[in-house]
Amino acid sequence: MPDATGTADDIWRNLVAGADRGRTANPVLDPDDHSPVAVVLTCSDARVPPSLVFDEPRNRLFEVRVPGGGLDDTVREAIDFAVDHLHVPLVVVLGHENCAAVGLAVQTRDAGTEPGTLGATVAAIRRSVGDASADDAIAAHVRSTVADLRTTIGDAATVVGAITHLGSGRLEVVDTD
Fold it and tell me: Using CA atoms in the order 63, 176, 130, 77, what is the torsion angle rounded to 10 degrees?
């Protein structure tokens, strides 16, 4: 794996070289073929790339990534686009252990303080986790997001939830019924 340390220029050179390696290592895609089989809403955390979590090649997952995997108008529009225009039949809400955004939501809720960093995002996550304990907050956030999307999407797609465990790579299906 190339070195990801150094100056921004060094990192950029490594990324460009990686893109060239990737072009030769991965099959070239038909630019007109955009037919993912699932939407994955997850955190923007670099440790949780959905294609690696689910061992899927390019063009299989429509990834929507925002801090904490929360819902806002832009996220809803992206999911609606995939479901309505690309006819994606499955939406996966993927949480992960040690999520900083969910942790910040619980921490500020318990301290009675307002979030500074990621203010609107953390406020929305606080609403979704309710009074869940720190240990249960990620599952509560996934359940709440699944319920919200099921209301929004209706029967247009199936919505499920899961949590990926960073240390083991284990996928935990979250009961959302």
Answer: 30
For residue 87, pLDDT over 90 is answered with yes
Distance, in Å, from the CA atom of 50 to the CA atom of 55, rounded to the nearest integer, reads: 8
CA atoms within 13 A on the CB side of 30: 4
For 44-69, what is each residue's pLDDT tens digit?
999 999 999 999 988 899 999 999 99
SS (H, E, C) 38-102: EEEEECCCCCCCHHHHCCCCCCCEEEEECHHHCCCHHHHHHHHHHHHHCCCCEEEEEEECCCHHH
Give the whole-angstrom CA distance, residue 138 versus residue 144.
10
pLDDT value, residue 95? 97
Return d(Cα 88, Cα 105) in angstroms, integer.
31
CB 115 within 8 A of CB 123: yes
First to last CA, the chain: 42
Rg (alpha carbons) of the chain, rounded to whole number: 18
Half-sphere exposure of 130 toward its Cβ, with a 13 Å CA cutoff?
Answer: 9
CA neighbor of 43 nearest in space, from 29, 31, 53, 55 = 53
Whether the pTM exceeds 0.85: the reply is yes
What are 51's strand-pairing partners? none
Q: What is the mean pLDDT of the chain?
A: 91
